[in-house]
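I am still getting used to backbone structure tokens and would like to learn alongside you. To get us started, please write out a protein record for me. Once you have written the record down, we can walk along the chain together.
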Amino acid sequence: MRKIDLEHIIRAATDLTNEYQVVVVGSQSILGSVENPPPECLDSLEADIFVPANERLSDLIDGAIGEGSAFHDTFGYYAQGVDASTSILRDGWENRLVRLQSPNTNGRVGFCLEITDLFLAKCAANREKDRDFNLALLRHGIVDAAVATSRIPSMPLDDDGKTRIADLISRLSATSKANRHNHIGPKP
């Protein structure tokens, strides 16, 4: 997905729901937070969104512009209607959202997760695709592992969950550093 695709989804979702703003969670919220995301972070064809004023509209979004819809068939990408509990986000995440608003959104707003909040949510989900995504963020210097680790205490998890995330960040950081050191230049 490209930024212009996400802007289209924001425009379509706000037109459909007659709402001024939506919140984008999940991997494609990177498009609102990072100017030039790594290509490996843009593989997803879906944007997870919800209307903060009325999360029940997620069903409408799924039906009209979701997976398998005419919108999806026409454009090759789609929205997945979710709710605020879809991602495990650290305290105060709403205050750190990044505003995505442009002529391509018809002046409507898509609030995207701040990049470290997205990284930590992906750590909490801990699926293979989440680890790959986060590894790319570390490898490209978009997220600092020490900063992310320092923010774990504000996550709504028990001590075991916080320890698992800290261990995961440590492993991802070590892998990222090993990958950078082993790549000296193009192969002859």
Notes: The chain has a mean pLDDT of 93. The longest strand covers residues 21-25. Residues 3-114 form one domain. The first helix runs from residue 3 to 17.
